[in-house]
Amino acid sequence: MTAVVEAAPARPLMPVEEALERLLALAEAASISETEEVTLADAEGRVLARELVAGLDLPPWPNSAMDGYALRLADWQGEPLPVSQRIFAGHAPQPLQPGTCARIFTGAPLPEGADCVEMQENAEVLEDGRVRLLETLRISQNVRPKGQETRAGEQVMSAGTRLGPIQLGLAATLGFDRLTVVRKPRVAVLSTGDELVEPGLPLGPGQIYNSNRRLLVSWLQRLGCDVVDAGILPDDLVRTRQCLGGLGDVDLILSTGGVSVGEADYLGMALREAGELALWKLAIKPGKPLTFGHYQGVPVIGLPGNPASTLVTFGLLARPYLLRRQGVAHVTPLQFSVPAGFDWPAPGTRREYLRARIEDGRVRIYKNQSSGVLRSAAWAEGLAEVREGSTPRQGDLVSFIPFSELLG
Ligand code: AMP
Ligand code: MG
């Protein structure tokens, strides 16, 4: 009788959502708690550490939304009104004399006693200087009331808000010149591989230029991180140990390469010796293998080395992880549904992130989707998502994530 040997069932690939959930939980457990105070000029790209509460009403006083004439509606019986004062933006008005109107300009404070503004296009200045109002008016017309945008004491931004031009502008409207932000994460970037050479040097046999280092260093800087650039790490255990030991005080070690199946994985070996290591097989393409571990307590994320895989896994997994370490609540990139401009040949077991563009309202994909081809991403405007098991045809909706959502 022949023994029946059953093949061990292949471990199912980890869905992208699960990998993200795990990474975010790990990030929350290691959130950066130190804060610092910075000026608005230095706050771009940083994360607000405490909620921001308005210290004043906005606007602080009722003001005119138009260039025109301010009056008390009850004073106006249809007769022309004399002009008793002129009020420019930035000047304090006198109380309105009864039975008159005030010339007023956009943003100028409404004088006490006035309750509406007629815009100058609907007013006629007579030869004697009085003003005839040509349209009917209602109370509060063209007036921006005190506190209409914000009331003193209201929360205008929550802790964990990323500060970009709009948020900094908003802080400025409320008079803040300094903000308390989370300390910048310090991230060490390692590029592993004997084949790697830095741009500017000649290529030897079998060598390629190191692209991931530049990609990640530049991207991390945009994300508000301090980068410790650890350069190229040869495929060698002793050098790997030395490199890890010399990184100093960092919040994350981010490596690329050396996580493919069957490769002598020196980073993995070094982590097993002085830390811990988990190898994840993700249902994602490009970018199936991903490492998460710790080296002497410092979290390590190992991204696959192919440049397009590095791009996709950093953008979809490591970026949100880093943002969450800083307390950012909203880490999911905006994505929207766009009709496919392609036919997908066959359902896959991994979720594909295709380097794509939108042309004439349809998603076009780059002709070569190989994970080694970074040019595909330079051509593209974002990632089109083809879910596991699906076969979108021309015109079916697919999810599109613009690079602008991921790169900042
Ligand atoms: P690995 O994960 O080390 O097996 O690398 C997978 C593929 O990505 C190989 O073809 C490597 O040569 C390439 N690769 C790894 N690291 C880099 C890098 N920093 N820049 C460009 N290509 C890389
Ligand atoms: Mg390698």
Structural class determined from secondary elements:
alpha/beta
Question: Mind telling me the CATH superfamily name of the largest domain?
Answer: MoaB/Mog-like domain
Q: Give the CA-CA distance, first to last residue.
A: 64 Å
Strand order of the largest sheet: 16-13-17-21-20-18
The tally of helices reads: 8
CATH topology of the largest domain: Molybdenum Cofactor Biosythetic Enzyme, Chain A
Strand content: 25-35%
Attached small molecules? adenosine monophosphate, magnesium ion
Describe the structure.
The chain has 408 residues and is an alpha/beta fold. The chain folds into four domains: 16-34 and 183-200 and 207-325, Molybdenum Cofactor Biosythetic Enzyme, Chain A, CATH 3.40.980; 36-57 and 149-182, Molybdopterin biosynthesis moea protein, domain 2; 63-144, Molybdopterin biosynthesis moea protein, domain 3 (Molybdopterin biosynthesis moeA protein, domain 3); 336-407, MoeA, C-terminal, domain IV (Beta-clip, Beta Barrel). Helix content is 20%, strand content 28%. The chain is built from eight helices and 26 strands. The chain has helices at 16-29, 165-173, 212-222, 237-245, 266-274, 307-325, 375-379, 403-407, and strands at 35-39, 52-53, 63-64, 68-71, 83-87, 101-104, 116-119, 123-125, 131-133, 143-144, 155-157, 178-182, 186-192, 196-197, 208-209, 226-233, 252-256, 275-281, 284-285, 289-295, 298-303, 336-339, 351-359, 362-365, 382-386, 397-402. Strands 16-13-17-21-20-18 form a six-stranded mixed β-sheet, with helices on both faces. Strands 19, 22, 23, 24, 25 and 26 form a six-stranded mixed β-sheet that branches. It has a four-stranded mixed β-sheet with strand order 5-6-4-7, with no helix packed on it. Strand 8 and strand 9 form a beta hairpin. The radius of gyration is 30 Å and the shape is elongated. The mean pLDDT is 95. The structure holds adenosine monophosphate and magnesium ion. Magnesium ion binds next to loops. Magnesium ion (MG) binds at residues 192-193, 257-258, 263, 305.
